[in-house]
Amino acid sequence: MRIRIVDAFTDRPFSGNPAGVLLLDSFPEDAWLQQVAAEVNLSETAFAHPLPPGGEADWALRWFTPTTEVDMCGHATLATAHVLHTTGTATGTVRFAARCGILSATAEPDGTLTLDFPTSSLTRVDTPEGLAKALGAEPVAVHDTASHIGDLVVELRDEGTVRALAPDFAALAVLSGRGIIATAIADRPEGAYQFVSRGFFPAVGIDEDPVTGSAHTALAPYWSARFGRDELTGFQGGARTGIVRTRLRGDRTLLNGHAVTVIDGELHG
């Protein structure tokens, strides 16, 4: 069985966010999917199979962390679309049926892929007790996305504060539904990117996710409102980093980036 490892939201190997991708004829038992994801041991492993023609989607798509299935994942969707296009399995726009609804990925002339995801709603909340201590930084503002992706978006003072974070992951695991997205305005917003972020998801088995596409469905409306424009670029990551270009389209958010296949092999099991 063919398995690929794809670095997403980057144009060079060993950067961005790696995801496992398996194209199947159908979905086996959930226990097997979870075992494979645990063996791959990346933030997410994506499993996809083709759907009958004429429906609202072309492929069924699921994502698993090493410990659980998740409702939405951007980088593994980008990785799956990359595999479909680079292998000639698909061209143009590919539609995916996922737990969070119908998603799509479109191949662009410049070699990038654009994902079409639902925009996350944001609700201002009080800073949860213990959050500042667990992060190691005092929040400027906290917003909840519980009705959508289940993260807390935590604005911090500046880019340097975000980059320097060394959280207490055990403490963070009990402070949100899915994870914590720490973010700040870029030091030079007139430059290559306008905001920075890091994503921490210990509650679902991922201490830090290098480049979280789904988080940008909340970061895009958050920072677009601040900048007064619909198109922005975000920089995410700690040890590994990547770039996500965002376009806000009302209840949909477009996420654009590159992807690179770094491993193409056989899965035995």
Describe this structure in words.
This protein is of the alpha+beta class and 269 residues long. The chain has 6 helices and 18 strands. The protein starts with a strand and ends with a strand. It has 2 domains: 2-107 and 256-266, Diaminopimelate Epimerase, Chain A, domain 1; 123-250, Diaminopimelate Epimerase, Chain A, domain 1. Strand 7 and strand 8 form a beta hairpin. The mean pLDDT is 96. It has an 18-stranded mixed beta sheet that branches. It is globular. Belongs to the PhzF family. The active site is at residue 44. It holds the Pfam family PhzC-PhzF. This is Oxidoreductase.
The radius of gyration over CA amounts to 18 Å
* Distance, first to last CA: 9 Å
Return the CATH topology of the largest domain. Answer: Diaminopimelate Epimerase, Chain A, domain 1
Low-pLDDT ranges? none
* Proportion of strand residues: 35-45%
Mean pLDDT across all amino acids = 96
Q: Structural class from helices and strands?
A: alpha+beta
CATH architectural label of the largest domain? Roll
Output the CATH homologous superfamily of the largest domain.
Diaminopimelate Epimerase, Chain A, domain 1
- Number of helices in the DSSP assignment: 6
Q: What is the CATH class name of the largest domain?
A: Alpha Beta
Count of the domains = 2
Number of strand elements: 18
User: What portion of residues is helical?
Assistant: 10-25%
Major sheet characteristics: 18 strands, mixed
Order of helices and strands: EEHEEEHEEEEHEEHHEEEHEEEE
Shape: globular
